[in-house]
Design a protein that fits this description.
Blueprint: H1 2-21, E1 22-25, E2 29-35, E3 38-39, E4 46-49, E5 55-61, E6 65-75, E7 81-92, H2 95-100, H3 105-122, H4 126-131, H5 133-148, E8 153-164, H6 167-209, H7 211-226, H8 238-245
Helix pairs in contact: 3-5, 6-7
Amino acid sequence: MTATWTVLLIVVVLVGVTFTSIRVLREYERGVCFRLGRLRPLAGPGPVFLLPFIDRLIRVDLRTVTLTIPPQEVITRDNVPARVNAVAYFRVVKPDLAITEVEAYPVATSQIAQTTLRSVLGKAELDTLLSGRDELNDSLRRIIDEQTEPWGIKVTTVEIKDVEIPEVMQRAMARAAEAERERRAKVISAEGEFQASQRLLDASEILSRNPAAMQLRYQQTLVELGGEKSTIVFPLPLDLLAPFLHSPKPQNGPT
């Protein structure tokens, strides 16, 4: 009876040890295994067998991580204070380096992103920060990626989400934009008046060279001014009216 219980106890212990020695890694996971403190080849995906009390396994997620960069207070190159929010996307490409080269790689990546954001945006002007974000995003991504590459981290995208500037600066920018719109409107109006005067000068020059065209234009103007119930004036050649305009005077008979 004692031997049976002993065998049963040994079986239970072996089963328990077996279950505790097996790890199942998903497709997007890799295992960084240390055996007595020494790094072993990467494990996974699938089942991984570990030696109890000897092997230590650390799971590393290979999926893209969304890192929200906390709002940063920056002063642009033209001395304008701004509050900037950004987001970064990164993923682990070398799990062994992410574990052995840096402690807590998500925190380290976040700190690098915050420092780089303040440094890069501090060298840019406000206009570039508001309208040239594509270049700034690319510059941020490249700099952060260069610093995290030794850790086996690949930064794929960095996006500036929002830029907050003081209310006084917003009102000043609104006034400047309104003044610019008024200036453009005046320029367009002046150009229209200049073009209209040029057309009048060209028309007067053409009419001065052709008197018949001047007569027709005058008659057309009369019709346009008369409205819908105006008298229509038909042009007649002056040659037909000449006999009536220059009729001979009657001669006095002999007295």
